[in-house]
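Now for today's protein:

——
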Amino acid sequence: VQLQASGGGSVQAGDSLTLSCAASGFYFDDYAIGWFRQAPGQEREFVATLSWNSQYQLYADDVKGRFTISRDNAKDTLYLQMNNLRPEDTALYYCAVALRSIGSRDSKDYRYWGRGTLVTVSS
């Protein structure tokens, strides 16, 4: 099982960035996906989750309206479109897959994790 995240980088406040995460080694289509992040010196926190059929989405309050989670089951890939980025969005972003059809805010529900991709937003 492998989750390979990419797309991180250094941007200015107000810019946009799209993260991708390619999954392999398991049947991606049946499971919920999620994105978490960890800022320096802080605990990992929930960002967004999307159900297996893309019908159910949940976002952290501080990214709602700015970030969009999506998936392409044909490509076994999940995405996080991030708009209007803020300096407080600076973090290492992790993709994750839960062995259930609908995800949650709880990291314990996620079985597989990518290594993370760094997003740095400067003011």
